[in-house]
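Appendix B, Record 12. Input sequence as logged:
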Amino acid sequence: MPKLQIHEVRRLIFPLETAVDAVLELDREHGGALAHAALTEARIEPGADGGLVLAVRRSSFDPIERRRYSLPAVAAAVIHYCSKIRIPLPRHGTKSMEIVPEGFALTIQASAEVLRRHGAVPERAGAGRSDAATDDQAPPEAEQPMTV
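Logged structural output:
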């Protein structure tokens, strides 16, 4: 039996503050140094090699240390963060991260195949019919929009 394709595109927007939380959470879970440092600055670095820049200070006597996180590193952190706070994400699919005016955008594109439960769809039943207004054989309910 033939299969049908379903394509899904999800886009999640992470403001700067949320992206910082995600990076700090991942760092803490892996025993990183940020767990014991004070955050002094966070900014988005635009451009082709853009990312997230954090400035931290371990103690009041230490100099400020700047750390740069590439887009793939930010993506890994926000995917981990979504798992921790129970935002479901598809495991399979193409994931990409980009900088947007609101912060960071994680886009996930996935496809699935399901078994067809009917025969071939007749061409005249397509949604893009251009002759719908002149077709006097179509039942009146076919012209009404469906509300759910």
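Residues 131-136, 138-148 have pLDDT under 50 and may be disordered.
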